Amino acid sequence: MVVRKNSLRSNKIDIKKMTKLNPYFFVFLSLLVLVLVLRSFSGFDLSIPEQAPYRFTGYLMWFPELKGYDGNKFDTALLFNQVVLIFSSYFAIKWTYNPPTKRSLITRFYSAGDSVAMSVPTTDFNRAIAIYIVMTLLAGLTIFFAGVGKIWATVGVLHNASEFLILLILGSGGKFNLPVFWPIIAIFYISFITITCILL
């Protein structure tokens, strides 16, 4: 028993040391990965290929004409994706904006040390996933009708913002203020990215 206690103590000390070193180690590791990624582009031709016009709008897309490209396969995959997303969006909105009232059916976030009374309902998280599904549907429809270009960027940025919202809610353990979040994202993130895509 004495050996076991000593080993547990040494493990606790090691964990404390590691938590102090973790931020510095991960910053260094991130910078190292960034340098390696940038180095991997040294042998590539970085000139921008000529953009191809989209079939419906004639606006330039973000990629050139591709050899061997089969539009039927692309349209079939995209159409199937959109049909599934239409049904998913309907049920996601229906279930998340009319959540169950029975306590046993309400899902919750649990963190270490939380009691049942202090746990946070996943209502906002479920709604964020519903928003993400709807934004994915809109992004797919925009790809079909306008192609992947500057017009798509105005919808694609909403899709990215909904992903960011999900990460923030998960990172905060569900204690994130959802009504406050969207105005901040709309003003800073969405506006900045959309203006950048339009100007470039």
UniProtKB/TrEMBL annotation:
Keyword terms: Membrane, Transmembrane, Transmembrane helix
Regions that span the bilayer: 21-41, 76-93, 129-148, 155-174, 180-199
Domain of life: Eukaryota
Protein name in the entry: Uncharacterized protein
